[in-house]
Design goal:
17 helices, alpha/beta, single chain, 507 residues
């Protein structure tokens, strides 16, 4: 590439695409990466570009045994595209980059930039350096260089937002590699968090999700064990903030003051995602999870006593090394007792670099599969029974964008109830925008969603809906990117992410 070609490439608006794998923390990091690139003058490539962008960024996850195979397969598909397009750049970041810093460029020499979890703010500089020097730039920081919330952000929605309260994790679960890649827990100051929330609400956001590897350990870095419950109560004082959620807590740190704050703060939603991982005490000990079945079920009982309509979800790993049929039956017993609204269930897979990967007693694949299918069948039955209890209730639903894949064919809209259950409802005659709130009567329940087939009772137009309308009426670039306080955003509904990674699975 000649210097004139390079100059032309820099002068023109270059497009970018970010591909995200893994947990909510990665999703939120990708909002930062998009914001950084747009702040540097890049423009987002159209949906479905599939490698046609000038810069393709992979934000990777390291929790699955085959995570590297997936990455290198995707990189391999881009190699011929890059050969045909002088000036195209490929960057790899995230947990797998932090872990395999020395091997990515060796296996895929066409990659231009490798960066880690602690220095995402360097991406534009590294891309420019790689372009000028015409060689790969590999830069991995061993500790956090700047809290991500100080970086520009391109939020994915106008009505709901992630707000990071901490990064890193102090737990040492034997199946999880997150602490090694994300570092020790580091808490943000409460004032900084609340200032971000207030700025988001001023822009029209009406729902926020407090995000951390272990949110209810928040405060350990600040010397205040009740800091998280105080933060929830402080969010309750912010005018215009209608819904507050958080993910994910750890049973070890889940204290009565948090339950009280949830119950007594009106805008904290009646929803709890708390990873159980196993119902067997010996397996929990082998996992280095510092609670036992009785403690976990005791928390569930307290939450339900304080918040009767709370929907509780969890993560469960099946087939952890050494798991016997008796251990598995203890998990089944705990699921029957807890009656989760839903559970993200995973077959154990080795995470290279974790203690569990080298443990004796690795379970044969066919045994793990059989247990997994039995657990899924049980949880499906419970989820359906719990959802049927919602039939006849009148619920306020915040209209969402992209939640109902069949909405166009069924003439319905979709959204989330206060407890985060997915609700499909008949499209009313009047205009309804994402972020607006409707009141509907639930008429039918399926295991994973509710239906409101009758007429909508009320439609409440909201500032969040106004924000969505304004965003979609304006040009796509580069509004919504600012330095310091992030702009608008949306946390996706809890995805079935690989257990052991960040949020909600590892906690």
């Amino acid at each position: 590439m000649t210097s004139s070609d390079r100059s032309q490439a820099v002068d023109e608006k270059r497009s970018y695409e970010v591909r995200t794998y893994g947990c909510q923390m990665n999703v939120h990091d990708s909002e930062r990466l998009s914001g950084l690139l747009e702040d540097a003058g890049y423009v987002r490539a159209p949906e479905g570009s599939d490698g046609d962008a000038d810069v393709v960024v992979f934000n990777t996850c390291a929790v699955r045994e085959n995570a590297d195979n997936k990455l290198y397969g995707n990189l391999g598909r881009l190699a011929p595209m890059k050969t045909k397009r002088p000036g195209m750049q490929i960057a790899v970041g995230g947990c797998l980059a932090q872990k395999d810093r020395d091997t990515i460029v060796k296996k895929a020499p066409w990659v231009d930039v490798v960066f880690g979890t602690h220095n995402i703010g360097k991406l534009p500089v590294l891309l420019e350096r790689a372009r000028i020097q015409e060689e790969a730039q590999v830069e991995i920081a061993e500790s956090l260089e700047a809290f991500p919330s100080t970086l520009p952000t391109r939020r994915e929605s106008a009505y709901a937002a992630w707000v990071s309260i901490s990064v890193g994790c102090n737990n040492t679960c034997t199946f999880c590699i997150v602490p090694a890649l994300r570092g020790k827990e580091e808490d943000r100051r409460p004032g900084d968090i609340l200032a971000e929330v207030e700025a988001l609400v001023a822009e029209g956001v009406s729902e926020i999700t407090l995000l951390g590897q272990n949110v209810n350990a928040y405060g350990s870095d600040l010397g205040d064990r009740e800091a998280f419950s105080k933060l929830l109560r402080a969010c309750g004082e912010i005018e215009g903030l209608e819904r507050v959620r958080f993910t994910s807590p750890h049973p070890r740190d889940f204290t009565d003051d948090v339950i009280a704050a949830m119950a007594e703060t009106p805008n904290v939603m009646p929803q709890l995602h708390m990873p159980m991982q196993s119902g067997s005490d010996p397996i929990l000990k082998a996992m280095r999870r510092s609670y036992r079945q009785e403690r976990f079920l005791g928390i569930i009982e307290k939450v339900r006593a304080a918040i009767p309509h709370a929907a509780i979800s969890t993560d469960i790993i099946v087939g952890f090394p050494g798991e016997t049929e008796e251990d598995f039956q203890q998990t089944m017993h705990a699921v029957r007792e807890a009656r989760f609204a839903n559970a993200f269930t995973f077959q154990y897979s080795k995470r290279p670099g974790t203690p569990a990967a080298d443990m004796d007693g690795q379970i044969p694949k066919e045994v793990v599969q059989d247990r997994y299918m039995r657990l899924v069948a049980l949880q499906e039955e419970i989820s359906w029974e719990e959802n049927k209890k919602q039939v006849g209730r009148t619920l306020e639903v915040m209209v969402a964008e992209g939640e109902g894949r069949k909405d166009g064919a069924t003439h319905r809209l979709s959204g989330r109830a206060p407890d985060n259950r997915l609700v499909h409802f008949t499209k009313p005659a009047q205009e309804v925008r994402p972020g607006d709130v409707v009141t509907v009567d639930i008429t039918y329940a399926a295991p994973h969603h509710l239906l409101a087939e009758g007429p909508t009772q009320t439609v409440r137009r909201t500032r969040a809906g106004d924000a969505w309308e304004k965003r979609n009426a304006a040009p796509a670039e580069p509004a919504g990117v600012m330095l310091g306080i992030p702009t608008l955003g949306v946390p996706a509904p809890l995805p079935a992410v690989a257990s052991g990674c960040s949020v909600p699975a590892s906690s």
